[in-house]
Amino acid sequence: MMKSLQILLLAFLLLGFPPFPSANAATPAAAAVDNQPDTAIALKNYQKQLDTIKQQVSKAHTDNQLSKLFIATQALAIDLEKLVTDLQPEQEKLRAQLEVLGPEPAPGAMAETAAVAKQRNVLDSSKAQLDDAVKRSQAIRANAIALGQQINDLRRVAFKTQLALNTGSILSSDFWGAEEQPPEEDLNRFSDFNQQMLQIWETSWQEEWRYGTVGLLGLAVVIWSLGRYSVERFLAWLCIRYLPDGRLRRSFMALATAMITLFAVTLALNLIELTFSRVQEFSPVVHDFANGVKQLGVFCALIAGLGRAYLSLNRPSWRLAHMENAVASGMRYFPPLLAALALAFGSIEQINNVTGASLKTTVLGNGLVSTLMALVLLAIPLRARHIRHRLVRNGEHVEKRSTLNGVANLLILLFSVVILLSLLIGYVAFARFLVYQLIWIALVLMAFYFLVLFTTDLCAAVFSPHTTCGRALKKSLNFKDRHLEQLTIIFTAISKCSLLLLMIVALLNGSFGTTTPNSLIEKIIAILSGEGLKRLNIVPSNLLNAVIILVIGIYVLRVTQRWLSHELLPKTISDIGIRASLVTLFSNVGYVLIILITLATLGIQWNNLAWIVSALSVGIGFGLQEIVKNFISGLILLTERPVKVGDMIGIGGVEGDVRRINVRATEIQLSDRSTMIVPNSQLISQNVRNATMGNAQGVVTIALTFPVNIDPELVRNILLEAYREYAAILETPAPYVRFSQLGPEGIILSVTGYVASPRMVGATKSDLLFNILKMLRAQQVNLSKPQEVVFMKQRAKELIDEEEHSS
């Protein structure tokens, strides 16, 4: 080899040509060396541009800013790709020159000349610098592409949250531009994803996997169709055979229909995933897509199952909702159609998410999804209205639509129109938000409706004295019927409160296709631990959630007030005053909690309310002192209960019954049926006579003046007989007569008896006076002369006061 090289060099010399270019000649190696400083400067500038873009991305808040930064990254990637393309010919030339020189001589072999060694070193140095420049260019380009993808992801995420973002009307050419000229990167990502899916599909049908694939897919179809139908029939038979007559059968079967549909779809989807995952392990992209589709399929199955349970086409007599059969039959295709659309277009959105599709493609997909879903939702109330009108025209009986049903249809109609208008004017993000919020709210409310009916019917059946379970409880625990009734009310309330908490958390924190029972429980714990109150982050969705929680909270609070006042407390507490105090206290605490939860839903942090508290402190110091004083006094009245609802009190020279203790004042009904409003602070700071606080009995005392010559024993017996014969006078304590005074003016005898309430004293005293005068005349016993009565009036009043005080 060395000899051949020496011969070649000798030939070059004989021909008069130098074997290598001279140092002064412009060789590719020299040119590459000369271009190295320019390339290094260019790479340094490109890196600075990339760093600048990264800093601007962290500060960008609008889609316009992110869009400009995304274009900048694309331009930077193109420039770097051009630089790499320009450097590649230089690399090829240097590589060819090194190949001409051949490999470096091995140790011990004939050494090459100094000129060859020098030229080799120059070429190696130039090639190393060029290789490093190419690697740096490719690295910066890869970082620029990755940054562009991150910006694109941020734009897609911002698209879902920035509801006021106008991306163009669905009728504009810009909207359909993504379909006519889809971005090349999107096509590449979709092509890669499609290749992965096709590879999994083709591999699953190879000879070694074919029969297992057919078996698993067939089993999934059987479970979804025949298995679901058979289980529903079996549960219906169990309901008729073992459950007691009543609403429990209907509510259980409705809930079971929804759950069977849910479980059948879940099992079928798991079998489908197993069919293809057993062949080869999924890539991360395919794995994320499969998980997303499974979650989406579960919720779509819940839509179909709840719709089937609500319509109850197979068993119209078991239908929970009041609906004509014609209306139910006309609505039968909407739940599966809505579920199928949600699954199909939700899968498209999953593909966009896992492949990192551009914002333009994402907007196109979301616009199509929102349009079709809005049209289906719009058709639901219109179809029901058309069927009802047709029944009326045919003279058939149509039940009056409930207020709740009418409000639901109106809201669906209104939401659908707003969604379509938003799409027409270009607010695709807002339309998508409304579509998914409407589906999610309807899904949660329907599930809550069936669960509440089932738990209510279950508690009523378990604790009913007419069922086997209720009779067993009575016998084993020695319960009475009223005890079972109380247990029914308490357990029903606990179940409803638990379900209501789940519903509120699902409405406020859930999203269609992503929320699971575990996530709901985690969010409940987060709310109860106060995590939602640690930051201020008011966004449009939080505003909508705050309105929902405020309306639901006020409605639930009022329903609970009625339930406490008319169901639970009358069966557990006999004292009407305690019941009223508990209801009032519960109402006050409830309104405070509603306000706090509403603020927490908005994401308001408590330290952000410090300025409000400071302003209120100043206002309290100047103008709200009396209001605060009365409010605190009202709380004291409700807790200590020196005065409660139903008490007969006297204050400021008037006497009446306490009817209501409000936050600021107390209402007292007087004997003339008028109402006196007394500030709560007066009931705390002034002397108040409570006639029913220590003893609810009334004292009836009558003092009469007789001549000195009467028979005291006879008169005493007459008075006692009159009291004992009167039905309102209590036997215990027994009535008695006292000899109050003996003097020249006459004898004063006072008779005292007790009635059940101080409110009966006036009427009882009047009736007794009539009877006593009648009995005295029958026994020919006369009273003292009028002048003696007037003379002794003051003294008799004092005696009466002493008697009442002693009693």
TrEMBL record:
Q: Does the keyword Acetylation apply?
A: no
- Sequence ranges assigned to domain Mechanosensitive ion channel transmembrane helices 2/3 in this UniProt record: 584-625
Q: What are the residue boundaries of the Mechanosensitive ion channel MscS C-terminal domain, all occurrences included? A: 701-781
Which keywords accompany this UniProt record?
A: Cell membrane, Membrane, Signal, Transmembrane, Transmembrane helix
Q: Which InterPro entries match?
A: DUF3772 (IPR022249), LSM_dom_sf (IPR010920), MS_channel_1st (IPR049142), MS_channel_C (IPR049278), MscS-like_channel (IPR052702), MscS_beta-dom_sf (IPR023408), MscS_channel_2nd (IPR006685), MscS_channel_C_sf (IPR011066)
MF terms per GO, please?
A: mechanosensitive monoatomic ion channel activity
List residues of the DUF3772 domain: 135-194
Q: What protein family does this chain belong to?
A: Belongs to the MscS (TC 1.A.23) family.
Compartments reported by the entry: Cell membrane
**Recorded topology in the membrane:** Multi-pass membrane protein
> Highest taxon of the source?
Bacteria
Q: Native species of this protein?
A: Serratia oryzae
Q: Which residues form the Mechanosensitive ion channel MscS domain?
A: 627-692
Coarsely, its chief localization is membrane
What are the TM regions of this chain, as residue ranges? 209-231, 252-272, 292-311, 332-351, 363-382, 403-430, 436-463, 484-508, 538-557, 578-603
- What's the name of the protein? Mechanosensitive ion channel protein
Any Gene Ontology CC annotation? plasma membrane
- Signal sequence span is 1-25
